[in-house]
């Protein structure tokens, strides 16, 4: 198997995580990955049901979102947004988009999720911010993602009136951020039913984030 086929297989398989963690309804989300060492990416074909996905549905595009071959599949509607993120952020190897319900409810209100639990400090290093509304199709959404994330440690952004975009060093990291984003969005939505949320002190957020990055887990 070539490296590209292997990447397509892995990105295709990651879409099962979107359904497993209830992050998408019907076909409302997508995963992409940078093709390492190239100015290319692979991204899910538009509108294809997750049950029908095969690696060949991962469309190879340049970093302006143009397919590099006539594969017979149109790439995701969000291709230009993903491509802009890869162009602007060279350290990013994976991008994910979902309409996961609790996080998208915060996005619909245009409300950032405050860093009020340790799990948020760990994964997001602070609040999950809101990015501007843009119509789907060109790289406006990508510009909004990058402009918002450059002021935060969070790998997730709630794009106003739309949904969640996450980034990571790999596509799997970006999927993890999407799962964790929905988890904390639900927890904090439930918490504030009985009163206002209290943000953790900044020094605790910093210490927790540092511990998670440098001590947590296996060496
Ligand atoms: O957010 C939206 C539409 O609101 C799209 O990302 C979503 O439907 C997925 O589109 P694709 O099937 O990836 O073209």
Automatic annotation (TrEMBL):
SMART domains in UniProt: Aldolase_II
Q: Which reaction does it catalyse?
A: L-ribulose 5-phosphate = D-xylulose 5-phosphate
Protein's GO biological process: pentose catabolic process
Cofactor or coenzyme needed: Zn(2+)
- Positions of the Class II aldolase/adducin N-terminal domain: 9-189
The record's keywords, sorted A to Z, are: Metal-binding, Zinc
Q: GO: which molecular function terms?
A: aldehyde-lyase activity; L-ribulose-phosphate 4-epimerase activity; metal ion binding
Q: Which GO terms describe its cellular component?
A: cytosol
Q: What is its EC number?
A: 5.1.3.4
Q: Which InterPro entries match?
A: Aldolase_class_II_sugar_metab, Aldolase_II/adducin_N, Aldolase_II/adducin_N_sf
Pfam families in the record: Aldolase_II
Q: Which NCBIfam families match?
A: PRK06557.1
Give the family this protein belongs to, as stated in its UniProt record. Belongs to the aldolase class II family. AraD/FucA subfamily.
Q: What name does UniProt use for this protein?
A: L-ribulose-5-phosphate 4-epimerase
Q: Which organism is it from?
A: Nocardiopsis kunsanensis
